Amino acid sequence: GEDFDLRLIDYLANEFKKDVGVDLHHDPLALQRLKEASEKAKIELSSSQQTDINLPYITADASGPKHLNIRLTRAKLESLVERLIEKTIEPCKIAIKDAEIDDVILVGGQTRMPKVQEAVKEFFGKEARKDVNPDEAV
User: DSSP 3-state assignment of 99?
Assistant: First the structure.
């Protein structure tokens, strides 16, 4: 999940720089707000196709306060983290090479992301169990 956050934070900061001309990468307070907004957006995009990220007064310059307003789609988030999802598949291949898999249980909040669930289903050839809370599984 942290790696997903970092990809999204970087994207938001880059978009803000393109739109407003201010680089947030060196502003710890702005980065913290972007992190919190990224976590919230990921959760929202697990059940919605798009979300708006609105961070008023994210920074200021000589001309006054600056506000971040970006619409983020699930498709954009998926494109940002696609390589991260792909990287998780290889260790799965190694781990299950000789194993007999009866059930697939996803662990961690990031596994609520539909793209992650889709990649797991495609790899294992079966749906992950839905009766286990990913935040409580170990």
Answer: coil
Both tokens assigned to 58:
């994210």
As for how many domains the chain has, the answer is 1
Domain that holds residue 59: 2-76
- Asked if residue 6 belongs to a domain, the reply is yes
On whether the CB atoms of residues 12 and 70 are closer than 8 A, the answer is: yes
Cβ atoms of residues 74 and 41 within 8 Å:
no
d(CA 127, CA 125): 7
Q: Does position 8 have pLDDT exceeding 80, yes or no? A: yes
59-77: pLDDT as tens digits: 999 999 999 999 999 999 9
**45 residue type, one letter:** L
Establish if 30 belongs to a structural domain.
yes
Residue 132 makes CB contacts below 8 A (sequence gap 6+) with 105, 106
Q: Note whether residue 8 is domain-resident.
A: yes
Q: Are 61 and 54 in contact (CB under 8 A)?
A: no
Instruction: Provide the whole-model pTM.
Output: 0.73
Q: Is the pLDDT of residue 40 over 90?
A: yes
Residue 68's CATH number? 3.90.640.10
Strand ranges, E, within the chain:
50-61, 64-73
